[in-house]
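Slide 14.
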Amino acid sequence: MSRYGPRIAALERRAERDRKRLEPEDEQPEPDDATTYLREGAGRAIWLYVEGRTGGRMVRFSPAELDALERAMNAWLECYARCHGVKLEADFSIREAAELLLETRNVDDVGQLLTDVPSR
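Slide 15: predicted structure.
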């Protein structure tokens, strides 16, 4: 486990709680919540990966840590899509998301590019 292990575990727990809160199909979340799920959720997971890969010393994330980061990020991307009325089973790689974040410098763009929600 890397030094990021506890932070990754906390992100994963929070992402799962957020996703469970949106499970009732009859309840439509607020579109304004989409930005929160990206910036406070998926963006933090993606940035933690970027930080570990570019922060002076490259961190070797364990396979379990990478899986947990991806699960957290994907859960928040599902929440983001749900806020736009789209049911999505997200299965994106954390590396792909990190590359998009470094390219666009905007987590809102990352969410839209990965999920195609809202469509352009």
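Speaker note: The mean pLDDT is 93.
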